[in-house]
Predict the structure.
Amino acid sequence: MKIALVQMNISTDKPENLAHAENLVGEAATRGADLVMLPEMFCCEYSNNAFIQNREPAGGLTWQMLSHAAAENAVWLIGGSFPEADGERTYNTSFVFDRSGRQAAFHRKVHLFDIAVEGGQSFRESQTFTAGNEITRFNTEYGKMGLCVCFDIRFPELSRLMALEGASVIFCPASFNMTTGPAHWELLFRSRAVENQLFTAGCSSARNLHGPYVSFGNSMVVSPWGDIIAGAGAEETIIYADLDLDLIGKVRSELPLMTARRTDIYRLERS
């Protein structure tokens, strides 16, 4: 399974962002990608004002572009995320499309990014978004995949439940900033991969030092052993990784963390 993470530049012009994303998906497809992932909020700047200005329902312009791009290029497409309007509510939502352009899944960001780091970043996503309430998996010809959005990757329970329910890869469109990114980005994706013995893939936007929110970049793919098998820097790029999904069983048999859990004294359950 060959995956491509599109670490794209994002401007203030929504039509320009959509056209650019569609072109990059096409480029990834020509390089043999089976599944392509875009970054969080790929259609607009990362600010609450931009989220409100660019909100749209499922089935709208952004959704249609993603569906068309998946079908046109015959790839699985994780459409980063965009501000999904559902009545009066707005969600930070990632839609997944299969090779025919059919919507296969969607994930509404469960944990909203409300932080205030002294001397660093302050942001309140809950000023705009409503939190989702679902743990998201989707089936492909390669097996089950897990999906979360950005801040969700910080919560190990969410990833563990996806692993217990059969996910081979946890995909995460994201936009860590220059406070949290250098401190925790690599640590979190390697931790979730090692503790669940699966692949993790985090796709960020490229770094724009002149924007209202400066993304860390550094998109990466991590193996079940915790090795970074593909990684980016700060600039716009597409990174590729060939995932040998048989490696999951090999690692789990050599280091049987999943079967050695003491479910007689602790367990994790859905609510």
Remarks:
- The chain has one domain: 2-254.
- The two ends are 33 Å apart (CA to CA).
